[in-house]
Amino acid sequence: DPAIRLNLRLIPYSEELWLLVARDVTKLMRLEEVRRDFVANVSHELRTPLTVVHGYLDLLEPEDKPEWAPLLDEMRRQSQRMTQLVEDLLTLSRLEAQDEIADDQVSMAPMLATLKREAEALSQGRHHVTVESALDADLRGSTRELHSAFSNLVSNAVRYTPAGGDIAIRYAPTPDGGAALSVRDTGYGIPASHLPRITERFYRVSTSRSRELGGTGLGLSIVKHVLSLHQARLAIESEVGAGSTFTCVFGPERVLRRAEAASA
Ligand code: ADP
Q1: Histidine kinase domain spans which residues (predicted)?
Q2: How far apart are the CA of 38 and the centre of ligand 1, in A?
Q3: Any idea of the CA torsion for 56, 92, 102, 223, to the nearest 10 degrees?
Q4: Which of 220, 244, 247 to mutate to test the pocket of ligand 1 (most atoms within 8 A of CB)?
Q5: What's the whole-model pTM score?
């Protein structure tokens, strides 16, 4: 029956024998699909009312009620946060529904320039931002999704680094002929005990700090999904009080050398 989904595992048993374990995951996958559609639909339905609330809030500036100003500011901030949350949920749903990714030539020189600009705009002069490219090759994949992943890492680096810190974006070759894009900061760092769960949806080290700094808790989930669609992985190194480095590691098959690019 083609509708039945099996999860197969082959386990060595003895010198000559292997165990084949088959688990019926049809129901589990169906449930996962229902959950995914539900989240996507709810997010989509929330978009329009939020746009209306957001739009009207921007128009409100009662001159005879100056004491309302801070309340209105807070309402604007919160509705902005909600909008970001809905957008991030929609992005995640879109990523989860894909099992293939675009095969663009992702031009890395403009990508790095854009990331630098974004970091500087977010930082507003509070951090020292550097970009280094040690690899003259592009990537193969989705320009849009990779930009969203890299941008999330840059935004985290800025938000979780106090003023005066450094943010370093680096694109470099890996020993196996692949490529790595890393974002290093000198910020708060992440305790080792949190690292295994850090890419889970809504997982945060410190809820109060993240909330204050305006995150949705979905950024790293998005990064993980985008990378997995590119058969790439996320490596995280971090030390509390010293900073963190998030590295996106791409295999050689994702690297487009200049010569290949020219003949393609
Ligand atoms: P958020 O929207 O809360 O930033 P993310 O999924 O992007 O959500 O990150 C999850 C959590 O990981 C954050 O709440 C924060 O605690 C931690 N984190 C992410 N990036 C960094 C970083 N560069 N430095 C320190 N902590 C980080």
Answers
A1: 41-254
A2: 26
A3: 110
A4: 220
A5: 0.87
- Rounded to whole angstroms, the Cα distance separating 223 from 200 reads 11
- Nearest atom in ligand 1 to the alpha carbon of residue 206 is 16
Judge contact between 136 and 234, C-beta under 8 A: no
Token duo for residue 156: 């985290």
Ligand 1 centroid to Cα of residue 43, in Å, is 22
Tell me the C-alpha to C-alpha distance, in Å, between residue 85 and each of 209, 214, 263: 17, 10, 42
The 10s digit of each residue's pLDDT in 118-176 is 999 999 999 999 999 999 999 999 999 999 999 999 999 999 999 999 999 999 999 99
Which residues lie closer than 8 Å to 172 by C-beta, 6 or more apart? 132, 133, 134, 135, 179, 180, 182
Counting every residue written for the chain, the total comes to: 264
